[in-house]
């Protein structure tokens, strides 16, 4: 067993989102709808991108991976949340809690790398359109995806090791609806100062390492767009990256608020976690489909093929 022998806590109690049964019932319906929309939206994106040859480009290769990650990310936390909203006792084992922490970090970490790669893809498409095929080759895209999973996995292992070595003695109530590392530290009777420092350093390195390429890519993109003399050209260039920019703001904004702000169990903690783990995975397919004419056209073509097949 990975936990120390003198740790006497075997499970945690989650406070959840509310104690009121009526509010819990409403929240169950709300998050069930959110989860179903997330699954349907992201599965639709995966199906359409795979089925339509017009979307077999680096941009949509990354977008299909984003849809897969959003499915995984949402499934790490939302099904457990739905179960707890119907339960009187919201319990989770220590091992289950650490497993949830690991998968939250690996999916969120990979998504951060992926959003960074998508920013570089937009930079290459807008700033170097003639060299785009060389800059974003299929081999490079696959290597970037594998590297993102590898780096996120390594970071997740390091993060979980911070929690595995903690001793949980008496306090066992997590003031949250899910297991996240910042919420576990206050429950430990060990000295967590070094663990907190390592977590902050890890988040900053990971966050800056993925956000800075986004920032510099968009700095170049904006500079290139402003140099276009045609208003139509500027509008078309901006429309190709606006969806991604919205996704970046939603994901990085809520994630950094959750992990860099002091943990207090406040409404802001809960809202920021819900934003990046439940709401953003639901919104991403809508953002990319509603603002993208190619995706809209591909959805129509794909639906047309399936309707003809079943006639």
Summarize the structure.
With 311 residues, the protein is mostly helical. It has a single domain (11-310), classed as Rhopdopsin 7-helix transmembrane proteins, CATH 1.20.1070.10.
List keywords for this structure.
3 strands; three-stranded mixed β-sheet; 311 residues; 10 helices; Rhopdopsin 7-helix transmembrane proteins; single chain; globular; mainly alpha; disordered N terminus
What would your notes on this structure say?
The chain is mainly α. It has one domain: Rhopdopsin 7-helix transmembrane proteins. Helix content is 75%, strand content 3%. A 3-stranded mixed β-sheet has the order 2-1-3. The chain is globular, with a radius of gyration of 21 Å. Mean pLDDT is 83; it is low at 1-7.
Describe the secondary structure blueprint for this structure.
Layout lengths: L10 E4 L6 H31 L6 H28 L5 E3 H34 L4 H4 L2 H27 L8 E2 L6 H4 L8 H34 L4 H30 L6 H24 L2 H18 L1
Helix content: over 70%
Q: Give the termini separation.
A: 57 Å
By CATH's scheme, which homologous superfamily applies? Answer: Rhodopsin 7-helix transmembrane proteins
Task: Record the strand order, biggest sheet.
Answer: 2-1-3
The CATH top-level class label: Mainly Alpha
């Amino acid at each position: 067993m990975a936990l120390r022998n003198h740790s006497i806590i075997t499970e945690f109690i989650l406070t959840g989102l509310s104690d009121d049964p009526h509010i819990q019932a409403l929240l169950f319906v709300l998050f069930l709808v959110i989860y179903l929309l997330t699954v349907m939206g992201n599965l639709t994106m995966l199906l359409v991108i795979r089925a339509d040859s017009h979307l077999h480009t680096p941009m949509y290769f990354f977008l299909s991976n984003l849809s897969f990650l959003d499915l995984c990310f949402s499934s790490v936390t939302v099904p457990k949340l739905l179960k707890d909203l119907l339960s009187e006792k919201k319990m989770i084992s220590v091992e289950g809690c650490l497993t949830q922490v690991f998968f939250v970090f690996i999916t969120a970490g990979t998504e951060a790398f992926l959003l960074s790669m998508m920013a570089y893809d937009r930079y290459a498409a807008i700033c170097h359109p003639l060299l785009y095929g060389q800059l974003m080759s299929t081999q490079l895209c696959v290597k970037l995806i594998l590297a993102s999973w590898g780096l996120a996995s390594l970071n997740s292992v390091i993060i979980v090791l911070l929690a595995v070595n903690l001793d949980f003695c008496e306090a066992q109530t997590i003031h949250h609806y899910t297991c996240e590392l910042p919420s576990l530290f206050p429950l430990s009777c060990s000295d967590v100062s070094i663990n907190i420092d390592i977590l902050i350093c890890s988040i900053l390195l990971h966050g800056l390492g993925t956000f800075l390429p986004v920032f510099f890519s968009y700095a170049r993109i904006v500079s290139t767009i402003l140099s276009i003399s045609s208003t139509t050209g500027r509008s078309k260039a901006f429309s190709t990256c606006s969806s991604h920019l919205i996704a970046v703001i939603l994901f990085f904004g809520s994630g950094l608020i959750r992990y860099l702000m002091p943990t207090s169990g406040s409404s802001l903690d809960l809202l920021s976690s819900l934003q990046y783990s439940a709401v953003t995975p639901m919104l991403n397919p809508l953002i990319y489909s509603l603002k993208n004419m190619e995706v809209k056209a591909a959805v129509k073509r794909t639906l047309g093929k399936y309707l003809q097949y079943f006639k």
